[in-house]
Write a structure and sequence with these properties.
The chain is α/β, with parallel strands linked by helices. 44% of the residues lie in helices and 16% in strands. It has 15 helices and twelve strands. A six-stranded mixed sheet has the order 10-7-3-4-5-11, sandwiched between helices. A hairpin with a 4-residue loop joins strand 1 and strand 2 (9-11). The chain is globular, with a radius of gyration of 21 Å. The two termini are 16 Å apart.
């Protein structure tokens, strides 16, 4: 059972570990309650290398239905349809031009919006590191998560694969790992080792520090991972929702959250996983993250409910914001001038995500001195007595 500190979220079945936890003290009290609305763009399930939708964007907002309705009606006074949908607006030149007006209106409510994004191909690289390299370090007594080392290692690897290695090496590495993770079998693990061995034998010295541990991690796969459930490690939606909830938990301390998500989304197919994460009976702890403040558990989530987006302007607003952010990330050639203007107007909106970073410094690995973030997440998903 693994978790990524980058998203403060659980990835399943990588480290085989036994964790003992203290008795749960229960959810900490909260004095206020607010509705938190969600929708996303670019979710392709486990198809993380979909060339058409390279980014997953999750938009969340505490703007209520009444306020969202007023914003949408002012931005698109001539819009016809049962609900405001980004794809419908984008394909109509007149409506698309009005997205600038929406950005102007939303800018005044920037503090009530959070956009989380995920570069899917880079996410595949991070999963490779977390599920092949990190267990190797853990078994040797090191903490790859401490002080954000794993994130810097991923950045360093990305730089090496894209700037030092042969053209296409980054794509070859991520394609090979994804092929195995999507169909994890003994035969495919052997194929993965074969491909990585060929790559390792023909790459610059800088990349030997990546391929060496990866190959060792493959050799020790059965010691730390469960082949039968390894495909679950490609999950991204629940983990992205948790990252967003973590943001709001830190932004609104003492506030309980009523989560409202589009009922047509596949998020609720993973409701059992989310129910464990959002349970009030998990151990009280601070789960560290590499790109933000730690997440306090139990989460202040008092309910998670599906909502028909046709009846919720607040969710429709999230749909538009997620679609816009996905277009900006992909540098859509359809209308770069418009997207540049929208991006400048939304400059005060809080944004975070999983993507290549500039910090490629390495530094020494830290020794493991106690439960790391993965051990903590295991205790959350499988609390004592649960």
């Amino acid at each position: 059972m693994r978790a990524t500190t980058w998203q403060a979220t659980p990835y399943l079945n990588s480290r085989k570990v036994h964790v003992q936890t203290a008795d749960e003290p229960g959810r900490q009290g909260a004095t206020m309650v607010t509705d938190l609305f969600f929708d996303e763009s670019g979710y392709t399930g486990r198809a993380l290398l979909d060339p058409v939708q390279p980014y997953l964007v999750v938009a969340s907002s505490i703007i209520c239905d009444a306020d969202a309705s007023a914003l949408l009606r002012e931005a698109f006074p001539a819009y016809k349809g049962d609900e405001f949908k980004f794809q419908n607006i984008w394909k109509r030149p007149g409506s698309r031009a009005r997205l600038v007006k929406l950005a102007q209106l939303v800018a005044d409510r920037a503090q009530d919006i959070f956009l989380w994004h995920l570069d899917k191909r880079f996410c595949v690289l991070t999963k490779l590191i977390e599920h092949l390299v990190e267990p190797l370090a853990y078994s040797r007594g090191f903490d790859l998560y401490k002080d954000g080392y794993i994130q810097r290692f991923a950045n360093h690897t990305y730089f090496g694969l894209t700037q030092v290695g042969d053209p296409g090496l980054y794509e070859a590495v991520t394609n090979a790992y994804f092929a195995f993770a999507n169909t994890p079998t003994k035969e495919n693990l052997v194929k993965l080792r074969f491909h990585f061995t060929i790559m390792a034998n023909s790459t610059p010295e800088m990349l030997r520090g990546f391929f060496g541990p990866v190959l060792q991690g493959i050799d020790e796969f059965d010691d730390h991972s469960d082949m039968a459930t390894f495909r679950d490690t490609l999950e991204t939606q629940v983990t992205s929702i948790l990252s967003s909830v973590s943001f709001w938990t830190n932004k609104k301390p003492g506030v309980s959250l009523n989560i409202r998500h589009d009922q047509s989304a596949s998020f609720f197919k993973a409701s059992s996983l989310w129910a464990k994460i959002a349970s009030p009976h998990v151990p009280a702890l601070l789960h560290p993250t590499a790109n933000g403040p730690p997440t306090a558990f139990p989460l202040p989530v008092i309910a998670t409910a599906p909502v028909d987006s046709k009846t919720s302007p607040a969710i429709q607003l999230c749909d538009l914001l997620a679609g816009l952010r996905a277009k900006m990330l992909a540098q859509s050639p359809d209308d770069l001038v418009l997207l540049s203007e929208v991006q400048s107007l939304l400059g005060d909106v809080s944004i975070n995500g999983v993507e290549p970073g500039d910090d490629i410094s390495a530094g020494p690995l830290s020794l493991r001195t106690g439960p790391d973030p993965v051990d903590q997440m295991v205790s959350i998903l499988f609390p004592k007595g649960g």
